[in-house]
Amino acid sequence: MSKLGDLGARLYRGEVGYDFVGKRFIWYGVSILITITAIAALAVQGLNMGIEFKGGAVFTTPKTAVSVAKATEDAEKASGHDAIVQELGTGGLRIQISGLDTDTATTVKKQLATDLKVTEADINADLVGPSWGEQIANKAWTGLGIFMVLVVIYLAIAFEWRMAVAALIALIHDLTITVGIYSLVGFEVTPGTVIGLLTILGYSLYDTVVVFDGLKEGSKDITKQTRFTYSEIANRSINGTLVRSINTTVVALLPVAALLFIGGGLLDAGMLNDISLSLFVGLAAGAYSSIFIATPLVVDLKEREPAMKALKKRVLAKRAAAAAKGESADGEGPVGDEPQVVAQGRQPGRRP
Amino acid sequence: MAAPKKGRRPTGAQGRPGRALAIILIAMVALTAGMFLSKQTTPRLGIDLAGGTSITLKAKSEPGKPDAINETNMNTAVGIIERRVNGLGVSEAEVQTQGRDHIIVNIPKGTNEQQAREQVGTTAQLYFRPVLAFADGAPAAPEGAQSPSPSASGSGAPKAEDGKSPSATPSSSATSQGRALSEALKAPNAPTPTPSGGESKKADDNKAAPTPSGSASGAPSPSTPPTGEDTAAAGLQEAFAKLDCTNEEQRAAAGKGVKPEDPMIACGQRGAAWGKWILGPAQVDGKDVKDAKGIIDPQRGMWIVTMQFTDNGADKFAKITGELATKQAPQNQFAIVLDGQVISDPSVSQALTGGNAEISGGFTQQSAQDLGNMLSYGALPLSFSEDSVTTVTAALGGEQLKAGLIAGAIGLLLVVIYLLVYYRGLAFVAIISLLVSAILTYTIMALLGKGIGFALNLPAVCGAIVAIGITADSFIVYFERIRDEIREGRTLRPAVERAWPRARRTILVSDFVSFLAAAVLFIVTVGKVQGFAFTLGLTTLLDVVVVFLFTKPIMTLLARTKFFASGHPWSGLDPKRLGAKPPLRRSRRTAAPAPVDAKEA
């Protein structure tokens, strides 16, 4: 750990660092590629919608001796529809029959009870009409819309509109990736997935906000100094908050991973599983986007500003002059009695 | 979030860490005590964990009634469904609206699921039926005879007087006595409301007869002489005599499955007590009511219910009131029957033509509006479709809860291990903070189960697990800030204080975003999703509370201990490990602290 701690220190001092901002076009490219793949997958393959969207029933039985194949046959005979049967960690069966409506499901349940030799009362039934998932999805879209508007307003006030825009793009990016992965892998989309997807909103932004907060602090009074351009400060901010970002992401992912593992291991395809799967994918995407996409986007937007352009000119001019004098004045690494450059947000005041 | 005034706030917090800790300790003790006092030591479990049936209904929008799905209608529907489900003898069935157009019916295990679904789904029936006989709710009970005195004479006497006095009086005196008794029906705008006009006088006189039997539970049967031709069958008489309306099951069974064209026996509430009726065939249908409202009559200053009938309904209503007006009490009354239960039995003194009528007497605002709602919506104000039905046996519910708890425990353990490895001594602060957060979450959840009916469902468990990450995040933000300060070459005490304002801002901003997401999710979604959003929102709020009132003060206190302040290798705050600057620079730095401070604020 001392190594990691040391890395943190060196990152903090700007001794090491990855040029996130400078190489942003590579990462933009990567993201665009992923996004295109996601959209293509979505267009070609679509999503594997769960029964909540098609209407149907999921029956969960207690431990039974009946084989999966036999149960599938029974279920299809009883219902006249296709059935998917899985064995659960509990020894019971999960029988999913699509196309059933809530009225006919009761008779199928009865039939299943006789076929599988369990009592009817012991079968859990989850019956959904075809519009149920759609409603949840509709509400989710509404929620998404409201949330985006609110959060953009909030970020625009708490930070500035450029950050709000960048955060929004990063958010859409995360959602697209998540949906794309669902489409590619063919995970089933259930209301649980939708919940997870909505939660990603909060998480993705949580991460972005932490990075932006560092950036805001670092770029305070930026025009009063001539050592760094905005993009350099932004890059420092990202590196400075990198340890924090990694830690918060790891810590957020751990419980979700546990949920996913337990949800998958002990209870196949339960709600726990659905939520945690989309959360897991979305969280990872969110961590990536806040570092590689959101902040560089802010830089792109910010450096269009006349004030930032002027600053860049001044900084470059000063560096050129210093280079002419054969001095290094770009603040890379601890130089002479100017150690404070490593501290974000300190540079301006410490300038002689 | 606003930057605090320079130096003031940090110093304050630094100076009184004990106070914040005391506050949170008191809160924890109070919540825990409250939990034990209310005897609700575990969170209430949702249907998906406790076992039972959860039915989600969606109001269907009907053509021509674009505004039908509104709050009032939804609430009326909930009231009706609730009565129906609980009429099954189910206790603790829970009916609530969710979102704009959903109703969730949760029925605990051990109930006939099919019956429940039938009951919930069918449209309620509202009919106006003539009263053939009335008696007190309980079957003739011997002990009833001994206790009629105070209430019977109390209400009986003024009633008799009222017959002669202006009709405004009886209604007010009746208020305390159960509204149905004094309810009278008349055409609105009748020129004779106040001065004892023949009509209102007669109504009151007539009512004087059933009054003693109604309130003085003493002599029920004698006061209900059934005229042979009106009473349909002797069997009905017999059933009527046996019927005990104080018994919930009998009550529910009484009006069940009777066709509108057949006479029936029914129960209903009269004030605080139950009454029972023999009722003739339905004369007017709920659908015949065009509109009904509970309004306050400005002239008499009392609540009344006005009714407006459709053309067809007006004819039927005129006919029946014309017939009833000629009869003796209680047969001059008609009963408004909803789902086989009498909800009102106003008396009639004249034929009411013209399609408008009002019921007056003894209403409170609530009761008038309730009746108005029930009448105007015929039955269920809206029609519903079943969106999803989930039945969960307790065994599998328990399995899922167990899986959730194991997942939570493992998730927590992983977080703890990671924190320990990475933050060493500092991790204990985080772990204890997580524990404080867990205690607060648990006790609040348990209390909310009683308070607002919060039920912990599976997604809520999931939300709580996910929240572990959010809560731990805020510690990381703070710890990293402290470490940054130490890297700057500060000693721990100032580092803890200087790191706080900046960490605080980050924590607040990011928690706000999280909370916003949870709040939006909670407001727009339905059913299971809400549980998830609720837990997420609650834990995010608690995160802020814990970080402010616990983590920060504890850090202030720990900064005074030698173990942490000296940067013990295991404290997680070892300056050397963190790569702090050599002391030489630190001294330089401390020599000129002023400009740095200025920027900190």
UniProtKB/TrEMBL annotation, chain A:
InterPro entries with a match to the protein in the record: SecD/SecF_arch_bac, SecD/SecF_bac, SecD/SecF_CS, SecD_SecF_C, SecD_SecF_C_bact, SecF_bac
Superkingdom of origin organism: Bacteria
Cell compartment(s), UniProt: Cell membrane
Protein's membrane topology: Multi-pass membrane protein
Single GO cellular component term: plasma membrane
Domain Protein export membrane protein SecD/SecF C-terminal stretches: 111-303
Gene Ontology molecular-function annotations: protein-transporting ATPase activity
Region of interest: Disordered: 324-352
Chain segments annotated as transmembrane: 25-44, 140-157, 164-187, 193-215, 246-267, 279-299
Gene Ontology terms describing biological process: intracellular protein transmembrane transport; protein targeting; protein transport by the Sec complex
Alphabetical keyword list: Cell membrane, Membrane, Protein transport, Translocation, Transmembrane, Transmembrane helix, Transport
Role of this protein: Part of the Sec protein translocase complex. Interacts with the SecYEG preprotein conducting channel. SecDF uses the proton motive force (PMF) to complete protein translocation after the ATP-dependent function of SecA.
Family as reported in the entry's similarity comment: Belongs to the SecD/SecF family. SecF subfamily.
Subunit structure: Forms a complex with SecD. Part of the essential Sec protein translocation apparatus which comprises SecA, SecYEG and auxiliary proteins SecDF. Other proteins may also be involved.
Name the UniProt record assigns to this protein: Protein-export membrane protein SecF
Gene designation per UniProt: secF
